[in-house]
Amino acid sequence: MRYFIELSYNGKNYRGWQIQPKVVTIQQKINDGLSKLLKVPISIMGAGRTDAGVHASQMYAHFDCEQKFDINEITERLNSFLPDDIVIYKIFDVDQKAHTRFHATNRSYEYRIYLGRNPFLLDTTWQLYRYQLDVEKMNEAAKLLLKYKDFKCFSKSNIDVKTYNCKVMQAEWKKYGDLLIFHISADRFLRNMVRAIVGTLIDIGLGKKSIEDFVKIIESRNREEAGFSVPAKGLFLTEIKYPDSIFKNE
Predict the structure, then answer these.
(1) Ordered DSSP codes for 217-234
(2) Active-site residue, 123 included
(3) pLDDT tens across 100-116, in order?
């Protein structure tokens, strides 16, 4: 049987989603918990791989298990096994061919900037309190992302991918009081893509780069031409969408 897991986590204390030697990751914590509870080796597959310090308010993973178990009981017990910064919302059975990564049709991220100082948001926002940003210009540049498909200039170097093409459906900044949030949705994302886009848009907001520069950066396909990568702590994976057929067994 194949099962999907819906979960969220605060990434502060982890070296990202994916299992790595000698460091603590979210995938490792959940694998350990499920393996102990089900008494068989379990290896979950995530819908994506968030980097160290990145958060997820919605993430999906799947795993296979031949033995029958009480889903509600295992969900409750798994939460008691896990640290407080990882929460399992539900586990549900799906078609054996359903895949959390390959069947995802849309992913959404937010990057959260606090325009001031707030000690209670230190771990979940990047705090800017010495600079004035031209948000209108940043939004003007962000709209251009919808017109392009090749985003190699915003990708981490030396990654093994077949294509740098992504279909961006939304890219905009919204202000909620002192909170400035960049919303972006696409069919897929490259490693470090969102943080590099935000850093480049910040340069535009500070007047260090122009809209024309932004176009040249995208068309250059050169990571060195783009702006800096903003800190991981402000980045959230917020939503993953699937075809309705995935959830037919809920």
Answers:
(1) HHHHT-GGGS-PPPPGGG
(2) no
(3) 999 999 999 999 999 99
